[in-house]
Design goal:
By secondary structure, the protein is mainly alpha-helical. The chain has 14 helices and no strands. Helix 3 packs antiparallel against helix 4, helix 4 packs antiparallel against helix 5 and helix 11 packs antiparallel against helix 12. The protein starts with 23 loop residues before the first helix and ends with a helix.
Length: 397
């Protein structure tokens, strides 16, 4: 019976012992976010416009932050006991309710969305209170998080009973407190830095979830078309965009930013690495939506300005986010990424923006081919740069 109820324990001292991997419970927990991301993509798919994109982002942020909160708690305190499993199950139900309310999350379902998010964060507060009771060394962190996240959750709960647009003002205040609580934790991030092998893997797994939306988009788009050379070419180019982003992200993923927080107290690098993932996953999800619109369009039809700007803007956002993530690795002083790669990503974003301006008069196959070429060239540049580094590192015989 004692094995069933293990109190939370601080796991930050395990870095030197062994690598940690995501547990089966964490992987199961991620499944509910697959549904939530799909709902967010569906919402954007129905309204390709500037206002539609901002609405998509407004709903995406609470969903992503719900996942981040659970990932960080498990990173520091997970014991996989019955208590943690039951609390995770309750949290999954709350996330499922969040997903249900996404479709009209800024309208008729906004109250339900607010209550669902408050429930997700409320469970996290309970987990931190439980952890603080048993892990004395982390009590300063758990108290801070429980207090800050609890206030934010209460604001979201109250917003459900306030009319629009004041409801959304409370959402902004609540999110500001939610984000500000860890941002201003300062030295606590250095003293209680996350596990450096577990956290990058968790963020990588979430990135895979949003990359999956691009694969689904290609399949859905092709399923609506008659097979011909142009439609197959568009599908292939679209798939190559997702494949290129997978390559660029995972080939350069490391724990340098996290280790910088614990080794030298550089919490700014670590926090920038964390928050740079938000525009990345937003951009990847929007890229999937843009791909579906392009693949499902008749090859002889020109792209609408909205569709062209969605795919180009989303891809450019991904490149800028990758530049930020890679910059943290450079700042941490490791050899995983170079400043040249950061510059390549920024240049790629600029080129894709140019394609958005000139591509309005081009057929979908040509526009998507140009974007895919930019992505593929980034992969080639990375491979060439890595090969050159290896050649230079070899000692002369």
């Amino acid at each position: 019976m004692k094995d069933w109820w293990q109190p939370p324990q601080l796991r930050i001292g395990e870095d030197s012992v062994a690598e940690r991997r995501a547990t089966w419970l964490e992987l199961f927990f991620d499944l509910v976010f697959v549904v939530a991301i799909a709902q967010l993509a569906h919402k954007l798919n129905e309204e390709i416009s500037l206002s539609g994109f901002f609405g998509f982002v407004a709903l995406f942020i609470p969903v992503w932050w719900s996942w981040v909160g659970a990932a960080f708690y498990a990173n520091r305190f997970d014991t996989d006991d019955v208590g943690h499993r039951l609390l995770t199950a309750v949290q999954m139900l709350a996330v499922a309710a969040l997903a249900v309310n996404i479709h009209h999350g800024l309208g008729d379902s906004s109250a339900g969305f607010a209550l669902s998010y408050a429930a997700v964060r409320g469970v996290l507060v309970v987990e931190y209170l439980r952890a603080g009771k048993h892990a004395a060394a982390a009590r300063s962190l758990t108290r801070r998080y429980a207090r800050g996240f609890g206030i934010a959750a209460a604001i979201w709960f109250l917003s459900a009973f306030v009319p629009i647009p004041f409801r959304f003002i409370l959402w902004a205040v609540g999110l500001g407190i939610d984000f500000g609580t860890p941002i201003f934790a300062g030295r606590l991030h250095a003293q209680l830095a996350p596990h450096s092998s577990h956290l990058p893997e968790r963020f990588g797994l979430f990135t895979l979830i949003v990359l999956g939306e691009s694969i689904v988009a290609v399949v859905n788009g092709v399923a609506e078309q008659h097979w011909n050379l142009q439609s197959v070419a568009v599908a292939a180019f679209s798939f190559s965009i997702a494949f290129s982003f997978w390559w660029l992200y995972f080939d350069n993923l490391d724990a340098a930013a996290i280790k910088a927080a614990s080794a030298s107290g550089r919490t700014d690098i670590y926090q920038f690495w964390l928050y740079a993932h938000l525009p990345l996953v937003i951009g990847l999800t929007a890229t999937g939506v843009g791909i579906e619109h392009i693949v499902s369009r008749l090859p002889s039809m020109l792209l609408s300005p909205a569709d062209l700007w969605l795919i180009c803007g989303a891809v450019a956002l991904c490149f800028l986010a990758l530049a930020g993530i890679h910059q943290t690795t450079v700042a941490a002083g490791t050899q995983k990424c170079s400043q040249r790669q950061v510059n390549y990503r920024i240049a790629a974003a600029a080129i894709v923006f140019v394609i958005a301006f000139v591509g309005i008069s081009l057929l979908p196959a040509i526009s998507i081919a140009l974007v895919a070429a930019v992505c593929a060239i980034q992969v080639v540049l990375d491979l060439y740069g890595r090969n050159q580094s290896q050649v230079q590192a070899k000692p002369d015989l």
